[in-house]
Amino acid sequence: MKRHQKFKALDFAEIKGFFFVANRLLGGFGPQSPFRYFRSPWLHTMTRCVLSCLIALALLAPVLAPAQQLVARQFPANALRGELQVIDPPDVRLNREAARLAPGARIRGLNNLLAMSGALVGPTYQVNYTIDTLGQLRDVWLLRADEQQHFWPGTPAEAANYDFDPAAQTWSRKP
Question: CA gyration radius for the chain?
Fold first, then answer.
């Protein structure tokens, strides 16, 4: 017999068989069995997998929680506030008057991701918007409830009476 063949490696069936025989000899499979709580992480891999996933989730939860908070959006100084209703894209109603979306217009949803105009047909939305040189809507931001609370001018004439602070995103009356 060769030196490396002295010890035979145990395979899975033999290990499982050992516990089966030991369990039967020491009281069977009933509630009094000393092996009733034995769950080897090497024999029952699902336990090991679930346990490691739960630990990873518990460690990542404090790191990922701030990512769920909404970020304050930056609007340009030439943006105006209004009500938008998409009728039949690119035709819209802006402040109860007919208007049109510019080719390549960007509509940003509540989560600041692009929203397709066809998905917004019907309801009226509070928005901030910019207009291009042809008078068509170029950029539109659907406003969240916290953004609707802040003052924003609705017309260029009204915006002329206020100063805009781009860092704080606030309007203050000119002296």
Answer: 33
